[in-house]
Write a structure and sequence with these properties.
Elements: H1 2-21, E1 27-28, E2 43-51, E3 62-67, E4 78-81, E5 87-93, E6 96-102, E7 110-112, E8 124-126, E9 131-139, E10 143-150, E11 161-167, E12 174-181, E13 187-193, E14 196-206, E15 214-219, E16 232-234, E17 245-246, E18 249-252, E19 254-262, E20 273-278, E21 282-287, E22 293-299, E23 302-309, E24 321-326, E25 329-331, E26 334-336, E27 341-348, E28 360-366, E29 374-376, E30 384-387, E31 395-401, E32 406-413, E33 416-417, E34 430-440
Length: 458
Amino acid sequence: MAQRRRNALVSLLSLVLSTILTGWLPVPANSAEPVYSGQIRGGRIEGIALSGDSGTPLAGVTVHLMPQPEKTTWGPARITRTDKSGNFVFDQLSRGLYRLSIGLEGYITRLYPDSQDGEQSNYLEVEEGKVISGIRIDVHPGGTLSGTVSDEKGTAVPGATVKVLAPREFGEPYVVVAEAQTDESGRYHFEKISPKRYWLRAQRAIEGDPANQSIEMGYYPNAPSPDSATLIAVGPESAPREFDITVGHRVRAATIAGVVTDKVTGEPLEGVGVSAEERWRSFLTAKSAADGSYRLEGLLPGRYLLKTAGEKVGGGYFMEVKEVSVAGDYVMNIALTPAPLIIATVQYVGQGPHPAFNEYTVTLEFNCGNCQTHTNSPYLGKEVFEFRGLAIVPVRIGAGFATPRYRVARVLMGSEDITGKWINLAPGEKLTNVRILITDQQGLEPKTSNRSPGGAAK
């Protein structure tokens, strides 16, 4: 069970990271310069986006192309827009595995391919000169959920938190898929809800003594737990319905408190973010004080993932994740292990046009042992890349590219060539002399250049 949860967490983090990267300086699909002599052509993906309810083409919709980090070197995400006929094209693609993502106001964001939706695979395999065509992506309207939250006297409750909870398997009760606050009239509203069955839960904190804070809560329509609550079926374009919730059950709020310290020195750490995530999505965050203490208050009793975010503290600290079950006051002291730091400088040594700032990423590939190997490339468009809070596992340093025009010539650590090699990292280790040399496909032996990736002389 623990192994399954660990792998699920790694997959979820990879997916969350992929989603974030699509919004960080993506490369427009048709922004590449003309192919010059000696450059390979790359691959091509083309398809059409349609409205799943009417079958009509979706014009002017943004389509994201996302390299799959578990399967290939991770270059920058790319974007394009559909034309008036709903068609889209990505060309001059580097060899690798990709997924498409498309969304529209009022529609559910769709990943393609997706084996859960009947596709045969979870990715598109691009090779040199290969054209992948005939892709049809049906984007469906999402359902809506709305209603009023009231107390037992029928009085509307403003400022209440309403959560949409999806049942889970393997004995885990739910996952939080959406969250909203009621307005001044006690109203809430959700859009773009995927077709499924859900619980609705509302809660509000009762003002009073913080040491004995209470929470009024209720599952739709008025139940103390999912066991006696009513599941709501949401379908595509489901007709608007009112789901009024009564917060008629009072429980004592739970707290999580403790001290954050350096695992090596035992010294308290100030400024570390500690968050309690309720089944992956909804969370409460606090910052540790000068003496390392933190406190999370007003939690509904239940199970949480307790996470730390101390990447910017000192040299950086490895993120800790623990699952806890809380009721009342819970003490959790956290000792963080100093994490390695890698600072890598990118230098272009090719002969052709210099890469633009958003045509490459620096990649870190981790050998996790008990988890799947993945690639981490959180920074785009910088000559100097800084990685803090890294896992203490072997790492391989490289780069990924938006098109096959460029490649890695060498990766150097000082004078040592570490291209393609696994580097063992120790707690608190600082690698500050890493250089990544980028060349072009038509270049033979790389020539040293004093110009930055953007082409300006130093």
